[in-house]
Amino acid sequence: MKRLQLIQLSLIGFSIIAFSSCSTTQKTEETTTPEVLVSSSVLDSNIVADALPFTIEFVEQNYGSKPALPSLQSYVSAMNQAGEIFVAGGRRQGLHTFNPAPATNFEKDSANNFLFIIDPVAGDQWSFDVNQLGDELSAPLQANNLQSYHDEASDFMYIVGGYGWKADGSDMVTFGTVIRFKLEDISAAIKSGAPASSVKALMQIGNDDRLAITGGELFMLNGSFYLVFGQRFDGQYRAFGGTDFTQEYSNAFRVFRLDPQTLKITAYGATQNSGADKPFHRRDGNIFESIDPATGMANITALGGVFKPGIIGGYDYPIFISSPSGVVMDSTVHQRFSQYECPVITIYNETAQDTSLYHTMFGGISMYYYSQTPDQRAVFDSATMQGRNDGLPFIADISTFQKSSTGTYQEFIQPEPIAGNRLLGSSITFIGNRSLEADLMAFDNGVIKLNKVPVGAKILAGYIYGGIEAQNPFPSIPNEGTWASNTLFAVYVTNSPSGAIPASFATKARNGAPLTRLPH
User: Fold this and answer.
1) Of 22, 366, 433, 508, whose Cβ has the fewest other Cβ atoms within 10 Å?
2) Signal sequence: where (predicted)?
3) Residue segments in the chain with a per-residue pLDDT below the cut of 70
4) What is the three-state SS of 272-329?
């Protein structure tokens, strides 16, 4: 029996079609109305006791009378040595609109033109306007759905690609740039109010069309950079075709090295796959650093992403990358939740019986759902009955995808959704607590080692900040009802088992039938 849903006061609808998690729409309210609040976990008979070896909590932070944090989504971030969060790029509004030409669906003034340093404990913040840096740097630093990697050993932060407006405002492009700087130096400069000339002197930029990717992810593995999946989109975004843009999916992961002096590519290769459903034809999914539970070696894991050929639907089987030729896929696996980019907390649990990886995903946009309030369900049903091309719905569910060292998979739903059944999590990644690595409670790539956390002890795993927030799973009014959030959650993991709901109890959001007009 499915659990009794929480009660929600009436909300305003919004518009969504899945193009990319790089998005913006009009904000209709500053905050959502709180839910009415009975804990529902005790009412759900689907819970399996001790299904997960850990307990995870998401605690919203409140900074009292301090200035509100910026509302942002589709940015890139890193944590400095002081535990502060560096943020670049992204957008200040929610999902992009879907108006036909000649409308502008990515408004110019919604791009984030600031670099931010945010203290997630005290709520203090510092900023620097990138428009002071000149066109070459300022335009790509205001793009959305960039790719970035922070190399903690050298402290170099690399920002690659992204989709944004040209400096002259004439059109939108995917930038073929790589920008490099030392995170500690930039953090200190921003916090001290250094002049633009000093900030600019800390940055270096390189150009190469092979780096023109948006909606993918950037990593370093075994000394090489991996630019995984994504697309190149130049021109004005249109939902269902047009003549004022070009689009090309990467259909590959690109492996390269950079000259440390010039940032020119010194070695390059691209691994492609031409399977029946084009398994590398993915963008805007969850791609992150992980560990192979069978070998204990680092890998890159891809969960979800869009779009499968011929349907409005995401990919539901994982891809594991360990080298240019080391790719493992299993199309018999069917991941139900969170096909679009959202925060993912990865936990490694080694026992005498088995070793497993647990990927806990926070909301986002999904092929399945479990928790909806009565008002959310009414809008969802209305949109579904109309047969609209609304893509996949926003969800409030928190799910966990498990892979064991023996190659088996399980998926669970947390008994409690995001507090208040808020539809949060889209277009952001998890910001891990890097101090766990120094404390030997995490691998060098940030994956948490549960067996290194004392039994019953609670640790700060990291933070979730911003993202797209939606009024309803599907829109009730086209092009309205989403906004960029400024909520910041501290994420805690306790080494004690918790109950969870098998994902088989979830409901599929769409039947996956081919539609005549497909998004890009």
Assistant:
1) 508
2) 1-20
3) 1-42, 240, 389, 510-520
4) ECCCCCCCCCCECCEEEEEECCCCCCEEEEEECCECCCCCCCECCCCEEECCCCCEEE
Coil vs helix vs strand at 243: coil
Q: How far apart are CA 144 and CA 213, in angstroms?
A: 11
CA dist list (Å): 149 to 31, 41, 299, 421, 431: 32, 38, 15, 32, 12
CA atoms within 13 A of residue 491's CA, in its CB half-sphere: 24
DSSP for 368-400, written as a single string: EE----HHHHHHHHHHHHTT----S-EEEEEEE
CATH no. for 47-508: 2.120.10.80
Is the backbone peptide bond immediately before 181 cis, with ω within 30 degrees of 0?
no
Tokens 């059944």 correspond to 421
- What token pair was written down for 93? 């509004």
Environment class of 422 (CB within 10 Å of its CB; exposed 0-12, middle 13-18, buried 19+): buried
Structure letter (DSSP) for residue 489:
E
Q: What is the pLDDT of residue 347?
A: 98
Kindly state the helix (H) or strand (E) to which residue 93 belongs, with its residue range: none
- Condensed to tens digits (0 to 9), the pLDDT of residues 58-110 reads 999 999 999 999 999 999 999 999 999 999 999 999 999 888 888 898 999 99
| pLDDT of the residue at 329 | 94
Residues 6+ apart with CB under 8 A from 16: 95, 365, 390, 391, 393, 394, 470, 474, 475, 482
Burial of 456 (0-12, 13-18, 19+ CB in 10 A): exposed
HEC letters along 118-139: ECCCCCCEEEEEHHHHCHHHHC
C-beta separation of 453 from 471 below 8 A: no
Instruction: Give 187's DSSP letter.
Output: H
Q: What is the pLDDT of residues 149-198, one digit of tens each?
A: 999 999 999 999 999 999 999 999 999 999 999 999 999 999 999 999 99
Which stretches of 14-109 are assigned E, i.e. beta strand? 48-52, 55-60, 76-79, 85-88
**Which H helix or E strand runs over 239?**
none
Cβ atoms of residues 475 and 16 within 8 Å = yes
Residues 70, 498 contacting (CB under 8 angstroms): no
Residue 516 pLDDT: 39
The position carrying tokens 């691994």 is 271
**According to the model, what pLDDT value does residue 98 have?**
82
What beta strand segments (E) does 405-481 contain?
409-413, 423-426, 431-432, 448-449, 458-465, 468-470
